[in-house]
Amino acid sequence: xxxxxxxxxxxxxxxxxxxxILRPFAPDDLDRMAELMANKDxxxxxxxxxxxxxxxxxxxxxxxxxxxxxxxxxxxIVRSSETLAGYCGFFHHEVDGKMEIEIGYRLDSAxxxxxxxxxxxxTVRDHGFRDLKLEYVISLIHPENHPSRRVAExxxxxxxxxxxxx
Length: 166
Prior knowledge:
Helices cover 29% and strands 27% of the residues. It has helices at 30-37, 52-67, 116-130, 146-154, and strands at 5-9, 12-16, 20-24, 73-78, 83-95, 98-107. Strands 1-2-3-4-5-6 form a six-stranded antiparallel sheet, with helices on both faces.
């Protein structure tokens, strides 16, 4: 696969692959993200479906991280349809008393089983190491979320240990 392109637009990092554009979230993504985050399949292995207000809070948080120069989430745009199909990027979590940076992803079920989550996760991982100079990243995966585990394994990650995470 060709190496993903990296571009900066108006000071914001945009990552590109042959099938995806990963760009910073914007406030006008709210309606589409609320639609996705209200879907039980999209939010499976998470806190469950979210309301519009909860989705707005999520977007404000990741937009704020990006604005503050912190590793953040990218809106995952499928090139062929120009559809916002989910997200992939970085979350900040306290795990066992230590702040960690996680690669997290979530994808519209209409796009499952096409390798898009793996493509996005690899691109985000490379961005984290190459551009952000991160030493390492983690992925927190529900034990029953086998597709997410496969994405992490394709991303060069390996099982390390179980943790309690809420």
